[in-house]
Design brief:
Helix content: 10-25%
Structural class: alpha+beta
Shape: globular
Number of strands: 34
Strand content: 15-25%
Number of helices: 13
Distance between the termini: 61 Å
Strand order of the largest sheet: 4-5-6-7-8-9-10-11
Length: 645
């Protein structure tokens, strides 16, 4: 009986005699956090486990610890774990619990940003695209269908997280509810209250729940809720006192917290790579820490938008594959001048861990690899869409096809002769996001969302009109996150609506992984339509410590997607920039056999007139000087985005 009572007491958290309780909370009287009963201030940095291969989690976390950080902050992208309704994936690079376990082993606390919406420059702000199957759904609101989906997801995620809370022996000290909700048009307090109750139901009453918003009163007006601790986010170079005064408007007492202190900024295709000087960061960071405030540096390492995970902003501008962010640790985890500058500032306010810092991982230039054209997307339709086309009078969106990422081929026939150049138009900006157009296999040009809404085509009546439509990434911020993809409105040919479509959802990733992209004998068609190229290279023998990280570049190529050993590295677009090279982590390379490369070039390769090759180099180039769309265009700051909330 006594043993049973002791077990019950232990389970209730009383612990053995002399065992200190693990607690984390807020002391409003002293305007600070309390950790195990003692005043505590955290210095944290953001890392997104979804943007760093699991193979490198420990390396990045150790570097963050050795910079003097007490904690890390990470988002949980819902769509990364539930890409299809009811199908959950927490394995491999998605093993969130292993990531939390590593953080604990390295003695880093965790600030968990659980969503359901996260922004993060991630596809649809982390919300799964299948939510849009109800076309009228109001995301991030108390819409009943949305709440039902959120409730099911949080019923899976939050019980997993409960065991990792600080008071339960884990590293999680705080959990964020939603994200920057004050920047969203809905301003639905019933929604926030629903989330608050849901989080409390699954996590209990002891964990600190918080919100974060920009320092504008407009943002804080709809983002704060009693019972959720309000924090703010702001970047370097501004008035720190004024920024924290905004937090004090919502939280007159309690710790000062900047949940996103920007160490850099995000990039967009066709715009210059954003760089923020270390001196600017250091000056503001000193001001924040001198006030005794808590701070999280966003990002401390940005990482990579592998595959199709990048987001986009409005007016529609997708982000590139690199999420380097000009952060203290580079996309590849390299130690930078900014890393050591921040470490020096932190050392002014607390003791830095002693011992060696894990070095920058070595990079290797494997050199040029010759590729061979194997066939066009049109040639491989049977392999890419084995179930055949879906027939529809009018075009269907990706969501209607249950094709959430990648590419769909829309096919109809020309209803009349177009011997003269005839306008094909997307009158209502209905191409989301780029359509690569051919008639009977002959390239005609590209329609692009918000940029190119009409082009002239030629062809005979009855011949195939093909549009390969690419989803370039869903909007991740503001009122337009309900971002439908594909042909979202009708196309017209000489003002006549085109009908009777055969629509092919393309599962390119599975076809590449299964080795179905093989050379088609005798194929000599154009190099200017969407086409697959393949090649291979072997890791050199006799050199120790290979394979190593590398970067892949595409001299003379235009735009496309690349896979190595079936792993989807992401999009390349050297014709637009600023990113020229793609990061290739060593863990996807093998030494036991040749490494297979598959390239889908969507527009024009150099292979018809020049050398048909790609090149592996040992230095990144994500800041190329190209012809940018608008050299005077402002950075995408929250002030610019305000028009789109």
């Amino acid at each position: 009986m006594l043993a049973l009572l002791l077990m019950q007491l232990l389970h209730a958290g009383f612990g053995a005699p002399g065992t200190p309780q693990r607690t984390f909370g807020i002391d409003y009287a002293r305007n600070c956090f309390l950790k195990d009963g003692q005043p505590f201030r955290y210095i944290s940095g953001s890392i997104h486990y979804s943007r760093v291969p699991q193979y490198y989690w420990k390396d990045r976390l150790l570097k963050m610890k050795m910079a003097g950080l007490d904690a890390i902050q990470t988002y949980v992208p819902w769509n990364f774990h539930e890409s299809e309704p009811g199908v959950y994936n927490f394995t491999g690079d998605r093993d969130l619990e292993y990531f939390l376990q590593l953080a604990k082993e390295i003695d880093l606390l965790v600030i968990l940003r659980a969503g359901p919406y996260i922004c993060a420059e991630w596809d649809m702000g982390g919300l799964p695209a299948w939510l849009l199957e109800k076309k009228t759904i109001v995301l991030r609101s108390s819409d009943s269908d949305y709440l039902a989906a959120v409730g099911r997801w949080m019923g899976v995620l939050l019980p997993k997280m409960k065991t990792h809370l600080y008071q339960n022996g884990g590293p999680i000290i705080m959990v964020q509810v939603e994200n920057e909700y004050g920047s969203y048009f809905a301003c639905d307090f019933d929604y926030l209250r629903y989330l608050q109750n849901l989080f409390r139901q699954h996590l209990g009453d002891k964990v600190v729940l918080f919100t974060t918003d920009g320092t504008s009163k407009i943002f804080l007006q709809c983002g704060a809720l009693q019972g959720l601790y309000s924090t703010v986010d702001f970047g370097p170079g501004g008035n720190v006192t004024a920024a924290f005064s905004a937090q004090r408007h919502s939280e007159p007492k309690g710790p000062l917290v900047n949940s996103e202190f920007y160490t850099g900024w995000l990039d967009h295709w066709g715009h210059q790579h954003c760089v923020v000087p270390s001196s600017t960061i250091m000056k503001s960071l000193v001001e924040i820490l001198a006030r005794g405030a808590n701070v999280n540096m966003y990002m401390f390492i940005g990482g990579t938008n592998f595959a199709y995970w990048n987001g986009a902003n409005m007016p529609y501008s997708p982000q590139p594959t690199s999420y380097d962010y000009d952060a203290p640790l580079s996309e590849a985890g390299d130690l930078t001048e900014k890393y050591f500058a921040i470490r020096e500032v932190i050392g002014m306010f607390k003791e830095i861990p002693k011992g060696p810092i894990p070095p920058t991982t070595p990079k290797f230039a494997y050199g040029q690899v010759v590729l061979e054209k194997v066939g066009t997307v049109r040639d491989f339709l049977d392999q890419l869409s084995p179930s055949g086309p879906i027939k529809s009078t009018y075009p269907l969106t990706f969501v209607q096809l249950k094709q959430y990422f990648g590419y769909v081929l829309y096919r109809t026939t020309l209803p009349k002769n177009c011997s003269e150049r005839t306008p094909l138009a997307s009158t209502f900006d209905g191409v989301h996001d780029r359509a690569y157009i051919s008639v009977d296999g002959i390239p005609q040009g590209v329609l692009e969302r918000s940029k190119v809404l009409k082009l002239n085509i030629t062809g005979k009546a009855g011949t195939y009109l093909d549009l390969l439509v690419e989803n370039m990434g869903r909007v991740n911020y503001g009122r337009y996150i309900n971002d439908f993809k594909g042909l979202v409105s009708n196309l017209t040919l000489a003002e006549e609506i085109l009908e009777d479509w055969d629509i092919y959802p393309l599962n390119i990733d599975e076809a590449v992984e299964q080795g179905l992209i093989n050379k088609i004998p005798g194929n000599i068609s154009s190099y200017d339509v969407p086409t697959f190229y393949t090649g291979s290279f072997s890791i050199p023998s006799g050199i120790p410590d290979l394979p190593q990280d590398t970067y892949i570049k595409f001299p003379g190529w235009t735009k496309g997607q690349v896979w190595i050993n079936g792993f989807n590295l992401g999009r390349y677009w050297p014709a637009r920039g600023p990113q020229i090279t793609l990061f290739v982590p060593s863990n996807i390379l093998v030494t036991s056999s040749p490494n297979n490369i598959t390239v889908l070039e969507l527009e024009k390769s150099p292979c018809g007139t020049e050398k048909c090759l790609i090149e592996f180099v040992d230095r990144p180039d994500i800041n190329a000087t190209l012809h940018y769309e608008n050299k005077t265009e402002k950075l995408f700051t929250r002030d610019v985005w305000l028009d789109y909330i």
